[in-house]
Amino acid sequence: MTTLQLQINGRAVSAAGDATVLEAIRSAGLQVPTLCHLDGLTPVGACRLCLVVIEGHPKLEPACVTAVADGMVVHTHTPELDTYRRMAVELFFAEGNHVCAVCVANGACELQAVAVEVGMDHSRFPYQYPRRQVDASHPLFSLDHHRCILCTRCVRVCDEIEAVHVWDVGYRGSSCSIIAGLDQPWGEVAACTNCGKCVDVCPTGALFRKEDGSGEKQPHPERAHQLVEARTEHHWHNQ
Ligand code: SF4
Ligand code: SF4
Ligand code: FES
Questions:
Q1: Which of 126, 155, 159, 204 would be 165's cystine partner, CB 3.0–4.6 Å?
Q2: Please, how many CA atoms are within 13 Å of residue 75, restricted to the half-sphere of its CB?
Q3: Ligand 2 atom closest to 147 (CA)
Q4: What is the pLDDT of residue 239?
């Protein structure tokens, strides 16, 4: 594998030829906020929080879906990026109903953590207070659409790791939402194996176990990567 040389925040960094800019940033011990990205799943560049400045590029680029190139010069934090990221997080809060105090994911929510990371203490955008559905038709799990940020992690983990494809993205604009099966109640989708992987990787309290009350959700986003690694390295071979 070719090794490429790039510069991130003034620091010389080596990266594998097939790495993304996000992987190069992390391998250099640096961080950018992410929400839709999850190690083990195909990156989609949906949340735009990982945008970085790449010198010579006419626009900001999402680090999670941008390939490294030799000689690339990357900046992960500039006043423009900091402002942009805070605004993006404020919009997430304003367009859903994220009432942390009564949310199952309070204290373990990646959206909450990112809000702290970007220094958001309130949203300057008018709250939309959307009226959305709560799908409690599954015997074990529920989906509260008010807390969904459309990161599509659930869609990808169910498709790519559980190989079932229960979830999809339906509708457009402000009606855009995650749908189960052929836009059915989740509990009516016979293909669901009840594995819980979608619940484990959901970064917010949108997907949760029915027994969980406020602040009781224990997400396990690391499991996607662990499963992919175990399969690739045949951890179960001859066991
Ligand atoms: S519980 Fe498993 S099979 Fe069912 S929707 Fe979630 S990831 Fe897919
Ligand atoms: S339900 Fe959770 S994992 Fe699925 S798109 Fe919404 S926020 Fe993301
Ligand atoms: S983490 Fe890169 S766009 Fe969401």
A1: 159
A2: 13
A3: 7
A4: 53
